[in-house]
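REQUEST FORM: STRUCTURE PREDICTION
Request ID: SP-0412
Submitted by: Lab K.M.
Chain count: 1
Length (residues): 442
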Amino acid sequence: MREQLNTLDRDELVELLVQAAERDHGLARRLTLAMANAEPDVTCLHDAVRTTFIGPADLGYWPAIRYAEGATAVADALAELVRDGRAADAVPLIEEAIGLLVTAVGRADDSAGAMGDLMRRLLRMHAEACGAARPPVDPLALAGWLARFQLGGQDWFTVDIADYASALGPAGVEAYRRKVQVRWAAQPADFQVRHAREGLARLDRDVPALVEIVGGDLRYAAQYGRLARALWDIGAHAAAIDWAERGLKAHPEDPAGAGLRDFLVEAYLRRDGGSAAIRLRRDGLVAAPVLHSYTALRNAAQHAGRWEAERPAALAVLARRNPGDHVRALLAEDDVDGAWRAACAVPDLSGRVWDELARRRAPGHPADVVDVLRRRVDEVLGSTGREVYRDAVRRLVELREVSGRCGRTRDFATFVRELTERHRRRPAFLAELSRAGLAGSG
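STATUS: Completed
RESULT:
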């Protein structure tokens, strides 16, 4: 084919390509992009944006992924234009690509997220290009574009006004603010309006406005947590700590998703070196005596260089109120001997704790764990089922190895014979024993 094509003149080749491109959207896109990369004028790149970002009518799951792959190549060319110092030329092209992509997303199955990722990349590129454009972009025109994108009806993507602050300048920011206020008066509950107002409040470092917008009615712990982080982001650290403390007082359980205690600990560590953070973590351990709370206290105290003084009391809390996590905490700190002593003092621990303890104890003290492993086999066989039997056999294989290392091979053989007799009506279990070479052990 290559040899035959070489016999055609240029006009014939061009006509063949045009005819093929009219039937094949993908080929048309590739040809347009190739011309854009070869041609310094932005006209070809503009054509590539339109050809690619309009996209086909059918944008199901796989077509949406292919759409994003093709459009990414055009986005690469737009990014190259910005890097080459032609940001002013790139801005309108990026804006058109974003507008077409919004329309495409509205009819697409983007459950893979490829088109959303592309949009977020284009928005970052747009903000960068607006800031780098020379001559500068018209701030009023930019404010209008941002308002149309943020408030124009699409509710999948948002812009952060702070990313555009330098390009907008005071006049552009005020123009954007007026458009947001008009929409807020008409649709005060709209999510995009609320996001836009929050962005302006952050830009202004307006604490009362953030309390109103982010905190809202402050009914839930998560609202306090989000407000505290927003205030911290704008540098209002004292106000952030104050609102987080109020939230924790109102919601001492600090439910999942709020993160009030975590926020305050980090803030306290930065503020006073850790005293308040350690007190808060102590209270958290008393309120929820679990390994997670113990670990959180340890991390805060280690940060402040005070863990050795805190550790005994923290362990005592777990020992009294959660013996299982007391053993786990000791194991987490590689205190296997201490964990073994603690477990032996409270033998009714969960099977999982004993499993972990036996695994860690066996290398240095195999004789100690023989009885534990035997007990666990019996406990497992309290249930039935093929997977139960396989689990029991895996444990028996481990027990055989441990018994051999401490000179109790005969005891192991006796134990297996007893198991075989007790469970002789479980043919599936006996089959698993035989498969592992344990039937008739000894």
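NOTES: The mean pLDDT is 91.
Reviewed by: T.R.
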